[in-house]
Amino acid sequence: MLQIAVTGKPNVGKSSFFNSATSSSVEMANYPFTTIDANKAVAHVISECPCKELGVTCNPRNSICIDGKRLIPVELIDVAGLVPGAHEGKGLGNKFLDDLMQAKVLIHVIDASGSTNAEGQPVEPGSYDPLQDLEFMEHEIVMWMYGILNRNWSRLVRKIEAEKLDISKVIFDQLSGTGISVEDIIEAKRSIEPDYTKWEEEDFIQLTKNILRIAKPMLIVANKADLPTAKENIARIREKFPNVIPTSAQSEMALVKAAESGLIKYTSGDSDFEILKEDELSPAQKNALIYIKENILDEYGSTGVQEALNYAIFDLLDMIVVYPVEDEHKYTDQKGNVLPDGILIKKGSVPRELAYKVHTDIGDKFMHAVDARKNMRISSEYELENNDVISIITRG
Fold it and tell me: Do residues 307 and 269 lie in contact, with contact meaning Cβ atoms separated by under 8 Å?
């Protein structure tokens, strides 16, 4: 299952984002280190299911289909709060960074209203510049990786020279356990001084920045977007950084709970909600719903929580959803389940790669594939497209 790390300094709404995205309950409080261990839970990204287009009723196994929307599971890791100096061991230091590196993509939650300082302590809204959080987050991760690479560099250079080793493979070995591939490192090296024996601190830092951008893309979640001081900050952040989603995790939590209670009709990611039991709403609840509609949904189009998850997977990681089936005529697996599994796979992948995603044995025995929509065999070089329904033909 793909992993997304939810990170940020204490008290910015990181655990609220995690809760609202996963509907699980982790402890929340206004002090640093509320989250000490990396909490993990399942969230979902949402994609259009082919069931309506194909005129079938699906019965998913690995996912959920709600009114033609396929909810595909991903794992969220709620990482302990980050503070300046983490790479030197301050706060929860290396534990934070170790947990962070488990994920394929990072969601950095910030307080867009500027109501928490650098250490995560509450301050007057608007009195702190959230742009500082974005700069120090990258700095902490880069300096941590730099420390790993630079620690034994002189010895490693001698070993590379003596044993004629590949520099990218050596760096890969140094960063083992971070989920960073040799290919990521090769790409990151392209803009660096070719002669690694001449590398100085600035070269290492640029290399680690490149690796981080390629291997661990980051989405900025500008939380508390409903507060008056947030709007101007969000505009400033967007001028300087790509991949910014305004959110209100508290609003998402309120809407989800109201929907679970049957008071409103709402699905995560919706741009509006429908009140079902107005007579059961208290005045405070009515006012809260009006506030959310006016300050979040009307302003930004959604609470931003589901949008952030979808953006992280489909845009930053460039994934698509493909549906493997056994019977290309009925769109079923061997047990008769219709469109049983929605598989997240990298855009540009070919049928054999999908086969290995389903199961190693199926990949090993792969012969060819059939486009179930067109009922025709496809080339082994065919690049899979989003919502393809593919039958994999195997030997034996």
Answer: yes
